[in-house]
């Protein structure tokens, strides 16, 4: 008891309990993961990593490796069922390997497929959709259509991280792969040129601020009204606000900021612009107005192809056919469908976006019934379907998908369901409920919305065997 309360001398920490330490008779050797051996890459995983197996049969996901290549690899993460690795030495290259167009490719986590030819990327994305559907027992006829455009200079929206390190150095750019660390970006070939040209000037501006640590991130967008810069700012600094205004005025930018920590409010620092994007529907041009924070497809050209494809697949619409557009946003599909003669009820969760959807319909001279509802609420969704049975339902949900809605649709036997998805795994999970209820996938497509990345958009048109008869009933005046 004499030693009670005295500091004991430290002992080396082993990472195991004393009992475990006593039981351990000999040091355990690290697992043999085959590192340093030469592997042949057998395929691409959904996220674009090469897939191979070691001599012991363990699966290895190798970043930067392409099918058919022989590589010496280095493991950077060991898991029970597989290892994650990167290429140490490229022994034999694939004929589809190309030089990445971006100087930041090796560090930036934004574009992970720039080392694969554009055609190869798109074939991979078509294969991913096929595989995800096949896992659910869905096998549409033929191959999915490809909706694509340019591989560079296409992205009209960007969110730039801002960080001040311990030495006061300012970093502005995108996150590194598998990290919260920012990679300083001087140019980005996938951004539209007007946005890429701002990267270096913006970093210089932030470096000269009095309180750069108060800047959370920057949002850039290009629209018909020009370039908009939105600053996420924790609190006001009058001197820095003056610098932001001078920067915007000198470059003809629209400037706003989200200010505050818990419930940030949007505040315009230059005159409020009329932000808008255009869609061409036959001979009619539709204008979609939006505000910062609204969802807007990043690739304008591919979005136009998706809308045109949706209209072609659903053509001809029966006169006055009722269409229910769920997750409608600001009207990306609702307004073109209304322009084709459909009676559209558009439903969105965000009250602000519902207001803009309704205003967009009025400004384009179109009739769309815009409603706000929680589309994760089964009771609300059931009410929407039972109020006026539609001939067609359009779904364009976020990455989480719309499984509950698809279960309801399977019960209500809606003649046609057009599902637009940004995640092929949740699309397949949801679509199987319709297929099990007798629906058939009649059309399908992959949209290369984000070239040089593993991300893909996809579209399925699912039709009931009795679609024609049901649609005639759904086009009445009731």
Automatic annotation (TrEMBL):
Q: What class of enzyme is it?
A: transferase
What GO molecular function annotations does the UniProt record carry, in alphabetical order? 4 iron, 4 sulfur cluster binding; iron ion binding; RNA binding; rRNA (uridine-C5-)-methyltransferase activity
Question: Has UniProt tagged this entry with the keyword Magnesium?
Answer: no
Q: What PROSITE patterns would the database entry show? A: SAM_MT_RNA_M5U, TRAM, TRMA_1
Region annotation (Disordered) maps to: 1-35
Keywords in alphabetical order, please.
4Fe-4S, Iron, Iron-sulfur, Metal-binding, Methyltransferase, rRNA processing, S-adenosyl-L-methionine, Transferase
The Gene Ontology biological process terms listed for this entry are: rRNA base methylation
Q: Where is the active site?
A: 422 (nucleophile), 422
Where is S-adenosyl-L-methionine annotated to bind?
A: 297, 327, 332, 348, 374, 396
Q: What is its EC number?
A: 2.1.1.190
User: What residue stretches are annotated with the TRAM domain?
Assistant: 30-89
Which sequence ranges form a coiled-coil region, renumbered to this chain?
none
Binding, [4Fe-4S] cluster: 102, 108, 111, 188
Which top-level group of life is the source organism from?
Bacteria
The record's InterPro entries line, in alphabetical order, gives:
23S_rRNA_MeTrfase_RlmD, MeTrfase_TrmA_AS, NA-bd_OB-fold, SAM-dependent_MTases_sf, TRAM_dom, U5_MeTrfase_fam
Instruction: Give the catalysed reaction(s), semicolon-separated.
Output: uridine(1939) in 23S rRNA + S-adenosyl-L-methionine = 5-methyluridine(1939) in 23S rRNA + S-adenosyl-L-homocysteine + H(+)
Compositionally biased spans, kind Basic residues: 1-11
Spell out the family assignment given in the record's similarity comment: Belongs to the class I-like SAM-binding methyltransferase superfamily. RNA M5U methyltransferase family. RlmD subfamily.
PANTHER family the record matches = 23S RRNA (URACIL(1939)-C(5))-METHYLTRANSFERASE RLMD, RNA M5U METHYLTRANSFERASE
The task this protein performs is described as: Catalyzes the formation of 5-methyl-uridine at position 1939 (m5U1939) in 23S rRNA.
Q: What name has this protein been given in UniProt?
A: 23S rRNA (uracil(1939)-C(5))-methyltransferase RlmD
Q: Which organism is it from?
A: Halomonas nitroreducens
Q: What is the lineage of its organism?
A: Bacteria, Pseudomonadati, Pseudomonadota, Gammaproteobacteria, Oceanospirillales
